[in-house]
Amino acid sequence: MIAALLLLLPLPLLLYMAAPRIREMLSSGVCTSPVQLPGKVAVVTGANTGIGKETAKELAKRGARVYLACRDVQKGELVAKEIQTKTGNQQVLVRKLDLADTRSIRAFAQGFLAEEKQLHILINNAGVMMCPYSKTVDGFEMHMGVNHLGHFLLTHLLLEKLKASAPARVVNVSSLAHFLGRLNFHNLQGEKFYNAGLAYCQSKLANVLFTQELARRLKGSGVTTYAVHPGSVNSELTRYSTFMTCMWWLFSCFLKTPEQGAQTSLHCALTEGLERLSGEYFSDCRVGWVSAQARNETVARRLWDVSCDLLGLPLD
Fold this sequence. Notes:
The chain is 46% helix and 12% strand. The protein is built from 11 helices and 8 strands.
């Protein structure tokens, strides 16, 4: 017994020493596209921190006019100044967007449409994870309301601008967690039964299904769409869960950096020749596997119709 314990003692040190190599193995996907974006317009939600911030920074570095769509405008302004300084691109703008409030989403869209003539890249990046049971301003369960319905509405409101700017792309940040998701249309808002982890997984499954149905509806329009799994990233996403925050801290040396986590979003937004893969789910900059329910066209169409009904949008 003592001998076994002695053998295990060096294990934490060995793991720590191996951490850079393990992180490299888990971060194999890198966006290698050389595409530059002068004259292009991009919107990134949740761009004041983490993956969104790094995504916006790279788009600005390539010359795009980038809108940081953030709930915290003050923090967004600080990030915009940082990106402007690092990239030399002064066309980094901050606009208020609270995905937990449909009035804020509509106000953002209305302002953007009045301000801009084109939109080439929409990256639906913002999200919440492991929230205690709570509701958005409009009464939606927080995960479903922010992660899916908020971005569903935003995309719908900006869709004609995307079509008029084609070729254009929509990137929806999902997660590997969608494999554990099941869409229960009789408990979509978690009022009959609620588990924070399952609610998050359900919303990430909704992201994948939304992407597939959107691709089907946009076929031939010049607008393509992709769902992405950024990987396990050391970010603020776990802020609502003490347990997940502790786990992220404990294993932080193995997690991707936000810059590494942004690579698959950038790959889908920038890489030429991906048009034929519209609707696909990407992980580490390549097409990944999805769950059985995520491939169900009937469920995807039903989710679209239910989402329109909840948001008061016309069925088409």
